[in-house]
């Protein structure tokens, strides 16, 4: 579960949303012709799903788990930090509208990549920052973006600690985690933790946003 005082305060509300939810996992869509897929871990996937979905050229975002070893983990198993997975998002995008480089850039501004194994009030390896690559070119883009942001001192003197890892497998999370940000705007965790992260990305990446969010 979310490791924060704020989350404890809204635990009963969240439990009510999840009550009766068995491990009914979401399914992965097939990429459309010409569409590409990218994967990132940026702390709680409720915020990162929303942030990435607001970018022009992004068609779908699926919340899930990646970077671990155990097959088909549940939310509770991932949050135990025993499976090695991180809360992640799989992004389906049109490279003719938004480049992989711009997705990577938005990813680094949609969370704090200088925080090792935590994001704000959420602590544990399941909240670590990871940029997954599928090709040598994508790896180079990620590494160059890290160098550029570090050189800009956008995050002050704190260096980016994001893992740069080859993509292996992505497991979609339970259905109730999908689109959670939009469906639970009254959740105190969403208002107190997720909304500021999304607004941070919006402010930094105004030119990349879909019209309804710009």
CATH topology: Peptide Methionine Sulfoxide Reductase, Chain A
- Tell me the structural class: alpha+beta
In total, how many domains does the architecture comprise?
Answer: 1
What percent of residues are in strands? 15-25%
Q: Tell me the overall shape.
A: globular
Q: Averaged pLDDT, please?
A: 91
> In sequence order, what are the helices and strands, one letter per element?
HHEHEHEHEEEHEEHH
Low-confidence sequence ranges: 4-21
Pfam families: PMSR
EC number: 1.8.4.11
Keywords: Oxidoreductase, Signal
Organism: Mucilaginibacter mallensis
What are the main properties of this structure?
Peptide Methionine Sulfoxide Reductase, Chain A; 8 helices; 8 strands
């Amino acid at each position: 579960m979310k490791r924060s005082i704020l989350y404890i305060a809204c635990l009963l509300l969240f439990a009510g949303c999840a009550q009766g939810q068995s491990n009914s996992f979401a399914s992965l869509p097939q990429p459309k012709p010409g569409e590409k897929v990218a994967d990132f871990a940026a702390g709680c996937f409720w915020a990162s799903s929303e942030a990435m979905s607001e970018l022009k050229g992004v068609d779908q975002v699926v919340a899930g788990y990646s970077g671990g070893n155990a097959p088909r983990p549940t939310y509770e198993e991932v949050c135990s930090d025993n499976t090695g997975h991180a809360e992640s998002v799989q992004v389906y995008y049109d490279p003719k509208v938004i480049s992989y480089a711009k997705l990577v850039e938005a990813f680094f501004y949609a969370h704090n990549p200088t925080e090792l194994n935590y994001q704000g009030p959420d602590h544990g390896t399941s909240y670590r920052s990871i940029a997954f690559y599928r090709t040598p070119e994508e790896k180079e883009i990620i590494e160059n973006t890290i160098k550029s942001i570090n050189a800009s001192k956008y995050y002050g003197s704190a260096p980016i600690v994001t893992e740069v890892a080859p993509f292996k497998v992505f497991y979609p999370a339970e259905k109730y985690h999908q689109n959670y940000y939009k469906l639970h705007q009254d959740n105190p965790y969403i208002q107190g933790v997720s909304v500021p992260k999304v607004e941070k990305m919006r402010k930094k990446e105004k030119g990349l946003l879909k019209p309804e969010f710009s």
